[in-house]
Amino acid sequence: MKKVFFIGLGLIGGSIALSIKKEYDDYEMIGYDIQDDQTKMAKALNVIDEVASSIKEGAEGADFIILSTPVEQTICILSELGKIKLKTNAIITDVGSTKKKIVEHAKRTLPNHVTFIGGHPMAGSHKSGVIAAKAHLFENAFYILTPNENESEENVNQLKALLKGTKAQFVVMNPEEHDYITGIISHFPHIIAASLVHQAEKNEDHFPLIKRMAAGGFRDITRIASGNPIMWRDILLHNKNIISKLFEQWIEEMKKLQKMVQEENGHEIYTYFHQAKTYRDGLPERQKGAIPSFYDLYVDVPDYPGVISEITGYLAKENISITNIQIIEAREEIYGVLRISFQSEHDRDQANQCIKKYTNYETFIQ
Ligand SMILES: NC(=O)C1=CN([C@@H]2O[C@H](COP(=O)(O)OP(=O)(O)OC[C@H]3O[C@@H](n4cnc5c(N)ncnc54)[C@H](O)[C@@H]3O)[C@@H](O)[C@H]2O)C=CC1
Ligand SMILES: O=C(O)C(=O)Cc1ccc(O)cc1
Fold first, then answer.
1. Below-70 pLDDT ranges, the chain
2. Which atom of ligand 2 lies nearest, measured to the CA of 125?
3. What separation in Å is there between the alpha carbon of 8 and the centre of ligand 1?
4. Are 55 and 84 in contact (CB under 8 A)?
5. Mutate which of 224, 230, 331 to test ligand 2's pocket (most atoms within 8 Å of Cβ)?
6. Residue nearest atom 29 in ligand 1 by C-alpha distance
7. Three-class SS of residue 188?
8. If you measure from the C-alpha of residue 60 to the centroid of ligand 2, how many angstroms do you get, rounded to a whole number?
9. How confident is the model over 138-179, as pLDDT tens digits?
10. 189 C-alpha to ligand 2 centroid (Å)
11. Angle ∠(20,148,152) on CA atoms, nearest 5
């Protein structure tokens, strides 16, 4: 039996472990986490088979090692792994949101008889901990791999095979390109989201209604600010150079926009928003329902054939009519992947109760 050793049993480590378990029953899954309660919970939830009492104990004899800790911890753990007698040809990977520092550190610290392939599943949520882990968290999401230039295809394929159960789309790129892209689409937006929350909070003394009224758009654009502050602190520190460049670009952009507003240049403001709208509307992830509906329920389900009939079957049993049903493929921005539309709020509430009665799927109303 091959051994997979997980270091860090939170949302991402737990989700990967579940996806491997779902795909294969001939791997021994061993886990370690500095938080005892996470390890115990992982064992109780059957996310792992065995608990290792230390990194050394789990790493010796492991065929695969998956590091799923905040990125600065990943650096420390790589140093620790460098001092342990690892199995020849072991494949080590991580899931960190930054790649350059981690890949460079792995090159420096790990022995030549093991392989390190950087990894980053590009999906997740603002939730933490193994309790939020799901086997289907990465379904349809991009999963970036950053192997060294001279890495054998066989090793990359072995890792892809291990991670097959994630049902993610693998993309290979170099760590610099990865950090630039994620800097733009993930790390910098996190900074903006957090800064908008601070701006609202700072103005609350003068306008106490802010908190109650900050629903809708404000909630949407700031959702990611609820992410784990340790994880995000580490990401910013790792990607400092690229984020510094993005700060400069952003400040220039804000100055340009500020000038348009100060000069009351309606034409330029319109063009600015119009261009942004055109680009945003052309993004591939979102698929809009054919029927416009205001009473939507999102159900977080695995994307398998028959899932729609399963859900509609329960609703039919309870005589609840729906106006539209659709699988949304992107897991970012939205919590549930199945969108069901109803004619009234009453129907939607009934459906919510019905799905909770027959299934364990999580439901959300946006
Ligand atoms: N949360 C998200 O949406 C995504 C996160 N990532 C990356 O995944 C990694 C893990 O994030 P999450 O699973 O969300 O965080 P999490 O907070 O749910 O889990 C991290 C786990 O690592 C453990 N840990 C911390 N230091 C450790 C150490 N020295 N030894 C052993 N265990 C240790 C913690 O106790 C915790 O259980 C981070 O590097 C993050 O950048 C990647 C994609 C998405
Ligand atoms: O909550 C969300 O929408 C996210 O953006 C989750 C996320 C966080 C960190 C990553 O490196 C990738 C995805």
1. 285-294, 303, 328-336, 366
2. 1
3. 6
4. yes
5. 224
6. 73
7. helix
8. 32
9. 888 899 999 999 999 999 999 999 999 999 999 999 999 999
10. 10
11. 70
- ipTM of predicted complex: 0.98
Q: What is the pLDDT of residue 113?
A: 97
CA 262, 263, 268, 274 torsion: positive or negative? positive
This prediction's pTM: 0.83
- pLDDT attached to residue 94: 98
Ligand 2 binding site (Cβ under 6 Å of any ligand atom): 97, 122-126, 186, 224, 332
Ligand nearest to the CA of 236: 1
What pLDDT digit, counting tens, does each position of 96-153 carry?
999 999 999 999 999 999 999 999 999 888 788 999 898 988 888 899 999 999 999 9
Closest atom of ligand 1 to 127 CA is 1
- Which residue of 6, 9, 33 sits with most ligand 1 atoms within 8 Å of its CB, as the best mutation to test the pocket? 33
| CB atoms near residue 366 (< 10 Å) | 13
Question: What are the structural domains, with CATH classification, of the chain?
Answer: 2-172 (3.40.50.720), 178-281 (1.10.3660.10), 295-364 (3.30.70.260)
Structure tokens at 327: 């699988």
pLDDT for res 301: 84
How far does residue 261's CA lie from ligand 1's centre (Å)? 42
The strand pair at 2-7 and 64-67 is best described as parallel
DSSP secondary-structure letter at 183? I
CA distance 289 to 291: 5
Q: What are phi and psi of 353, to 5 degrees?
A: -65, -40
